[in-house]
Write a structure and sequence with these properties.
Two copies of one chain form a homodimer. Chain A has 14 helices and 22 strands. By secondary structure, the first copy, chain A, is α/β, with parallel strands linked by helices. Chain A has two domains: 48-293 and 449-514, 3-Layer(bba) Sandwich (FAD/NAD(P)-binding domain); 298-443, Flavocytochrome C3, Chain A, domain 1, CATH 3.90.700.10. In chain A, the strands form six sheets. In chain A, strands 4, 5, 8, 9, 10, 11, 20 and 21 form an eight-stranded mixed β-sheet that branches. The interface between A and B is large, with 80 and 80 residues. Strand 1 of chain A pairs antiparallel with strand 2 of chain B.
């Protein structure tokens, strides 16, 4: 065959037998081209049957699984990787919440409407507003729901870029693992079955095109596509796709954004590819905003992946420090702008040959107090320490007088309560008066896919033609498209994952249960 | 059935017979869910058979048809509308050409590389560079090819926004009809069959998933989806999709860009919807950049559609005049920037309630000399005439002293050879010294879809999974995605349509011809 084709397992098997089968059942064999046609065939015998199958075990997947199990359903979670959690365990574990107890304690008046408005601004108006409202509206309750399973938030609330006020909660561990681990424990306690190294190969659909299960490779060993053995898993109520983005799928991301070559690093885990997205598209899912791929503005070229700099810059330099061009010692953007604005600003720093001139972000001891990766960053030489601004300038070849002038100007802005250079909000800002200083070189990395499949507010995947649900198919988290528009705000992926994962589960739980047959 | 499904004609017919058929051929009828599966069935009997079927009759479709017929193939062109030509007859008929005879005569040194570079800049680096080179490289030869069929270019070359020098040829008629009419005549002379009111419903694929024809509604009357009768048309070598964009498909464009509501007008013809794109996606075509939808920056809110202002602004105010904010009398962008930059600049002009404050573009008698729609625009009161700048200011409520100061400043820039405000290229600029003045209010309209299906340099549509060609399926023109990236430059759609249409035809002509059967 000259190219792969869009079939479900039994279709593919039958295609292979092709003419023989046709001849066998009705003597219809003909010469020349033939037309592939569906027919009613026996229901497959499934190796195992569940009410709900969740594909993926990150924030969205684990939230869906726990929610569905809480409501009494028999749930399976599969993940193709040898560990659970995907990208959700290798990020900062920060969740934007509108109206948290933490905000109330800090005297910060927030609202769902304000969070929606911030996300719309960052999304350049491309957001699916109904889904966006659903997410923002669910954050406060979902943050408490996570706490009830054991997530512990730091006692303070943070001000991330693009948010108009401090609204970010962060796990005690500064890692999404502080959410995933408790959810996995809760899932196991609630009787959820969890299979790792189990990769979705194709959907199984019935004669009415309802998704009734998945064909998987069991014992799959990423990235060996031929590893593992076939299994058919039945889902009486539906399949929830919590399969994340494709930030590490270099060919696929380059089809949409040719500049995102292999030379640009990514914060994602190696399995973050487009395989699951493609399977959804093959059965009619409608892809939205696939070319909107976020670059994280807080990463460092001096280490691989998410590393130590991302958390350091998020918690320290962006909130409590400044970022300067090493050639001039001058700031060149609002350090609390949204990610797209910051990443694009950083990537303008190039020499005459177009090669990156990495800017540095820095803060002092007080500013770095809440950065949990400081020690590791220093150890790996990603973060550098300098006692004085002169020393700092020397480390990076910055004109010392200009650097000192910039810091003095910044301090004046803080005293005046207004950033006259770039309009940065100064609610939590303080003057940078004394060392030691901590600095890191910065360059963006591929971080998050705003694009994905179109869903409705019941988290049902909508069909390209009808814009009505593909029966039995739900999606949540990064696998969906449209919520964030052109640029996701920081800490809104955890919010989206948890809220939409639970939303998908609530919808699937209510679906009619089909009667499927075991092998 | 709860939602439409992805089937070809015979699959759909068989689905309807469902269980009955299964029982009939093999006694396999079962209770409960069943799995749709393909099987080898008799080849369909086609109502008519051609070598190549071209869907769409704009620049790409007609170029493909003429090219294929020139090479001796039996060609059918279908168009769903009651007239041929689609958007290609309701635009300015301007074609960007690198290295034209017109440029040589005017002493303008251009190159394919420079045109590629201009388009990459406008496309924000999102362009498919190989396809882009193919298009630019083919422009000079294709412009002569059009001439050979009767297209007559104006004797001068124009400087459109975003191009770094004058390279735009325009038909004598200032309309794409000056290209489409000669091509239709050439097609008919070469024996091409042409059916209008014939809508593609689905592709017909053989057992190897090769596209072998199309199911159409013959006698279709747009937009009545139930009009017309079914026909199966066979294509021994392949189907070329020259089906344009979806600028008038309000639900579909809003899925990607919620702001493009029905309140935003479009320059496109009413049939410019996503139906054909969706059919390609259903058989595995890979959609690229669907959210990149261009707003034309030269249209007027004072008339519907492309109207008279678009040509006037393109040929007159943008090349030979200036655009000002009516509240200040001041310019606010480079009038020769690319379309995205200009449209976005214009759409920043809003009042406190966010309502548009339409800027005006204006020039004088000399500047308007080449605008063929001037007379009509004046007649319909879209273009207004004023003898003096004071009168002009009075017409639009502009502070007269400020308007005069802006014109004086502009004239100084022209004398200095440098636009110190916005860096506009001044190669063809002249001072605006005397009236009468001609002005038009401006607001963007939905104009062009940069997005579409992914193709290779043989114009073969590539499959989502394999990134290899879907056998028998070609695409050209606006139906494809990636060539223009984030923003198409003016006059590059004609270039793309003609060059890629011919390219698709050359590829399809070389394909093996299947032996298909007539009914």
């Amino acid at each position: 065959m000259s190219h792969p084709h869009n079939t479900n397992p039994s279709r593919r098997a039958l295609l292979k037998q092709g003419a023989a089968l046709a001849a066998g059942v009705g003597g219809l064999m003909v010469a020349g081209p033939t037309i592939a046609a569906p027919r009613a065939t026996p229901a497959p015998k499934f190796d195992e049957i569940f009410d709900i199958i969740v594909v993926g075990s990150g924030f969205a997947g684990m939230s869906a699984a726990v929610q569905a199990a809480e409501e009494g359903d028999k749930v399976l979670v599969i993940d193709k990787m040898p560990v659970f959690g995907g990208n959700s365990t290798i990020n900062g574990g920060a969740m934007a919440v509108a109206g948290s107890d933490h905000q109330a304690k800090a005297g910060i008046e927030d609202s769902v409407e304000l969070m929606v408005s911030d996300m719309l601004t960052s999304g350049r108006g491309m957001n699916d507003v109904e889904m966006l409202k659903l997410v923002c509206d669910g954050t406060a309750e979902s943050a408490r729901w996570l706490e009830s399973y054991g997530t512990v938030w730091k006692p303070f609330v943070q001000h991330f870029g693009g948010h108009s006020l401090p609204r970010v909660l962060q796990t005690r561990e500064s890692s999404g693992a502080g959410i995933i681990r408790p959810l996995i424990a809760a899932a196991k306690k609630a009787g959820v079955t969890m299979y790792k190294q189990t990769k979705l190969i194709e959907f199984v659909q019935d004669g009415q095109q309802r998704v009734v299960g998945v064909k998987v490779k069991s014992g799959y060993f990423f990235p060996k596509e031929k590893s593992g053995s076939d299994k058919l898993l039945g889902a009486r109520k539906g399949v929830i796709m919590a399969t994340g983005g494709f930030g590490r799928d270099i060919p696929f991301r380059q089809m949409q954004q040719p500049r995102l070559t292999s030379e640009l690093d990514s914060t994602n885990h190696p399995g973050a590819n487009a395989d699951a997205l493609k399977q959804m598209m093959l059965i009619g899912a409608n892809p939205i905003h696939l070319d909107q791929i976020q670059l994280g503005p807080w990463s460092s070229p001096d280490e691989k992946g998410f590393g130590t700099a991302s958390q350091f810059n998020t918690a320290a330099t962006y909130q409590n420090g400044i970022v300067v061009d090493v050639r001039t010692g001058e700031r060149f953007f609002n350090e609390l702008a949204d990610r797209k604005a910051r990443a694009e600003a950083i990537m303008t720093r190039r020499d005459d040959q177009g090669q990156p001139v990495y800017p540095i972000g820095f803060t002092n001891e007080k500013g770095a107090a809440k950065a949990q990766t400081l020690e590791w960053g220093l150890k790996y030489d990603v973060i550098k320490k300098a006692d004085t601004l002169d020393d700092l300038a020397g480390l990076y070849g910055i004109p010392a007088d200009k650097l000192k002038a910039q810091v003095a100007q910044w301090n004046q802005f803080v005293r005046d309560g207004e950033d006259k250079q770039f309009g940065r909000p100064l609610m939590q800002a303080f003057e940078l008066t004394e060392g030691p200083w901590y600095a890191v070189r910065m360059w963006p990395k591929v971080h998050y896919c705003m694009g994905g499949v179109r869903v409705n507010t019941h988290s049902q995947v909508l069909h390209l033609i009808s814009d009505k649900p593909i029966a039995g198919l739900y999606a949540a988290g990064e696998a969906t498209g449209g919520i964030h528009g052109a640029s996701r705000l920081g800490a809104c992926a955890v919010a989206e994952g948890v809220v939409t994962g639970r939303n998908a589960a609530r919808s699937a739980v209510k679906a009619d249960a089909l009667s499927l047959k075991l092998a």
